[in-house]
């Protein structure tokens, strides 16, 4: 079957330094993978402070901006691109509300985090930011086109 345009939707997801330090990489990847989304790019990177400021450019001027950028550049981050129908919006649903105080149990932040400044994961909040963030973190060649076909490897 031919892929519909909607199925090619992609979002940028990052496991922040606290998620990496706490050993939650596989737990977080697992949730996206089991849902049925497809991983099309992944790398471990320590962003510079300047890079973190670019990533959070829209938050410049907020009181927590400097601390947030220090935090994002404090250690390894798992940067990923996930693909699938509705992945931008539903990815945010899997992640849960920005503040773990408000995120429902069953969501990543609801189950695994306590404070807003240490909320372990980032996800693009819309199609425009997804596009911008993917191209900030990845080169076009880093995104892998493939068909995920489980049966082929089982029999
Ligand atoms: P993200 O971009 O990381 O997925 O988070 P978000 O859209 O849910 O939230 P946003 O408002 O874009 O804020 C980005 C990150 O800034 C930190 N933050 N700290 N009051 C605070 O100390 C505060 N508010 C926000 C959070 O880590 C949030 O994820």
TrEMBL record:
GO molecular function: ATP binding; metal ion binding; nucleoside diphosphate kinase activity
GO annotation terms (biological process): CTP biosynthetic process; GTP biosynthetic process; UTP biosynthetic process
Keyword Ribosomal protein among record annotations: no
The Nucleoside diphosphate kinase-like domain, residue ranges: 8-145
Cofactor(s) required for function per UniProt: Mg(2+)
Swiss-Prot/TrEMBL keywords: ATP-binding, Kinase, Magnesium, Metal-binding, Nucleotide metabolism, Nucleotide-binding, Transferase
Cellular component GO terms held in the UniProt record: chloroplast thylakoid lumen
Enzyme Commission number(s) from the entry: 2.7.4.6
Reactions that this protein is recorded to catalyse: a 2'-deoxyribonucleoside 5'-diphosphate + ATP = a 2'-deoxyribonucleoside 5'-triphosphate + ADP; a ribonucleoside 5'-diphosphate + ATP = a ribonucleoside 5'-triphosphate + ADP
Major localization listed first in the record, in broad terms: plastid
Binding site for ATP: 16, 64, 92, 98, 109, 119
Localisation per UniProt entry: Plastid, Chloroplast thylakoid lumen
Organism domain of life: Eukaryota
Enzyme class per UniProt: transferase
Active site per the UniProt annotation: 122 (pros-phosphohistidine intermediate)
Assembly description: Homohexamer.
Biological role: Major role in the synthesis of nucleoside triphosphates other than ATP. The ATP gamma phosphate is transferred to the NDP beta phosphate via a ping-pong mechanism, using a phosphorylated active-site intermediate. Shows the highest specificity towards GDP.
Family membership noted in the UniProt record: Belongs to the NDK family.
Protein's UniProt name: Nucleoside diphosphate kinase
Species annotation: Adiantum capillus-veneris
């Amino acid at each position: 079957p031919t892929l519909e345009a909607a199925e090619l939707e992609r979002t940028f997801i990052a496991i922040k330094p606290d998620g990496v330090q706490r050993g939650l990489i596989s737990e977080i990847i697992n949730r996206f993978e089991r849902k049925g989304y497809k991983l099309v790019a992944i790398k471990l990177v320590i962003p510079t402070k300047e890079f973190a400021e670019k990533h959070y450019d829209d938050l410049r001027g907020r009181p927590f901006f400097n601390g947030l950028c220090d935090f994002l550049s404090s250690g390894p981050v798992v940067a990923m691109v996930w693909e699938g129908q509705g992945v931008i919006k539903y990815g945010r649903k899997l992640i849960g509300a920005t503040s773990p105080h408000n995120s429902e149990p069953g969501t990543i932040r609801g189950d695994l985090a306590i404070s807003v400044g240490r909320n372990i994961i980032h996800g693009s909040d819309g199609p425009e930011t997804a596009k911008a963030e993917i191209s900030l973190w990845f080169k076009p060649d880093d995104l892998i086109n493939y068909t995920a076909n489980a049966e082929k490897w089982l029999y």
